[in-house]
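Can't attach files on this board, so I'm pasting raw text. These are the components:
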Amino acid sequence: MKIVVTSQGPDLNSQVDPRFGRAKNFIVVDTETEEFTVHDNTQNLNAAQGAGIQAGRTVADLGVEAVVTGNVGPKAFAALQAAGIKIFLGASGTVKEAVKKFKAGELQDASKANVEGHWM
Amino acid sequence: MQIAIASGKGGTGKTTVATNLAWVASLNGQRVAYLDCDVEEPNGHIFLKPEIDDRRPVGKLVPRVDVERCTLCGQCDAICRFSAIVRIGDKVLVYPELCHACGGCALACPVDAISETSIEIGVLETGRAGAVEFAQGLLKIGQPMSPPVIRSVKATDSQADITIVDAPPGTSCPVIEAVRDADFIVLVTEPTPFGLHDLKLAVDMVRVLKIPFGVVINRAMPNGTDIRSFCKSRRIKILKEIPDDRDLAEAYSRGAVAAQALGGYKEIFADLLESILKAEGISK
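---
Top answer:
Structure tokens for the assembled complex are below.
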């Protein structure tokens, strides 16, 4: 399965970025093979508004089935839901650890946004 | 003539200056309007105590998508600079709170799938405060977009001889909307590092707008020289210095118009009005 993990750095040993819309990078990971690609999110990181929405679209275009991150605001949540992407919250530590927890079913499958927009 | 009272920094005395100017201007038989464009927290009414005789909702047009007609071409999404309408997968999402009501998406849609519908974002109140025509806007709590409410307040400006616009603080879109049509802008500041810092921002703003302006120093102290030297170096006219006066602060805390309630202030504000009219080249 292809998933996206929000990351502060460019590889699997980087820390998970707790933010979705303003995450530094999106790392697309194949959970079977652990092969990955990095997608820069600088443009949204610096957006005044709509970062979550645009990030949602970016992720939808990456063709992934799930997002693993720390927190998701309401606008990004609606965007991800529209794209039919599952959202797993509360990830922390390295990207590798987050993928491991995801595979073990230890992350919470979010049914709604867990923070307000601009929470951080 | 439209005079906008702005500041950069909040709490410098915009409303004090605006309400006092409106009151003194109304004394010489001219038609005067006071427009409270600080729609997130309008408080000119506390001093002018108007009788409100009309209240009406203020709306903002936002897109509505007819999913039957929509071909998911994404033209609406491509034109929107604010991500207020986005195509994601096989859906088009609208975020009304981000919409600036430009109507671009409806124009861009090649199959006429987008219509515009009004949502209520605030209230416009109009009435009279003695001889002063009064209007204020109130943005609904939770609504982030104030310019449409500010526009509705300014649209009430009838044929008043002198219109005083009480602007919100800052230098962003709501302030620009409030002051852009003014013939003259009064920037109110205070002798603190914050007052000076934000005055510089406000000066840069009005210079971009190319509107004549002058500065009022509120709570002025004899020894505070930073603002005076800044104004001198930038060739900015200081229209008036309002003293740091306990009586003035007490009148304010009672919700009184100082020019009406305190000796000496009628002259100070009448003199300020005179300076503004002179600076604008319109002698009364």
